[in-house]
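Progress narrative, Year 2. Work on Methylthioribose-1-phosphate isomerase from Sutterella megalosphaeroides advanced from sequence curation to structure prediction during this period.
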Amino acid sequence: MKVNGIPTRSIRSLDGGTAVEIVDQTSLPYHYETRVLNDWRDCVEAIANMRVRGAPLIGITGAWGVVLAAKEDPENAALLAAADAIANARPTAVNLSWAVHRMMGALLPREPSLRFEAAVKLAEAMTQEDVLTCRAIGEAGAPLIADLYQKLRRPVNILTHCNAGWLATVDYGTALAPIYAAFERGTPLHVWVDETRPRNQGLLTAWELAQHGVPHTIIADNAGGQLMQQGDVDLVIVGADRITRRGDVANKIGTYLKALAAHDNDVPFYVAAPSSTIDWKLTDGKRQIPIENRASSELLSVRGIDSTGRIAAVQIAPVEEAVANPAFDVTHNRFVTGLITERGVVAPTDLTSVFSDKLLPEGGAS
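Result:
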């Protein structure tokens, strides 16, 4: 996608895979900055502290983390220890462990001296696969928006939650990919952008959409239901961090409430995600998907820019307050109209038939 008119990706390798450059998302939307990761520990820090975020991008960053681990020490003990640390940097998005296990499955059978070169090749291939997958998601989802426009004969109002654009992937995005594809084809549309507290990832969505000239409006998280009641939302598209084989979806906290409101108001609720987000070992999302609990400081303070243009945090509640900060919630498949995937729009309960080849051990997620 583009930043100030320049084609840009959220992650890229440097110097033959000996380092990785990322867009540091902790500085957005206030400042656009990049950051170089020189070893696998930098990748762990970037994932844990959300310098990179979004399930697909976390996975690709994990893959490059394995590359940097192989550069440092390709022997089994060191590589396995690094891979374990990378895979556990964040618990909910299955793409991370999927990517690390895919990398390790290719590297461990090789002689240590051959592992770094092989790791670079596979990580580059996975990076490009993510781009093509997200483009395919966009191609699959754009007709949903175009068909609504043909029916309504006015701009289609789409509600999003969190950020599932190119910043959450290598390029194009998941939930935003159909929006970008439809917009580029000339379909009139407008996006309602949830702020998505406490990390305010909706501001990243607004920043992305502004870079591409897509009409949008930021709204408070609790405004979506009222907009649906008033008939101002035609379609909801969100991303996902983990999907069970029966189609239950874990996504950013607050997604479940949007799904309930959409169901009550007969608004189609779609989830856009690649097959790497499906955890084939899980069936019951509510009982089995691990939910990350993050630091209380994310709720007790807010970040912004001060009068000098510097990013600053302001405390909004006493530090001694008790805080619960779950980062994700789970939406049951009965509230999901369809899953927008690289293989088309799929009913939640049809995943195992559409992706039957992914059920094999080498294709399944861990």
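The first helix runs from residue 40 to 48. The mean pLDDT is 95.
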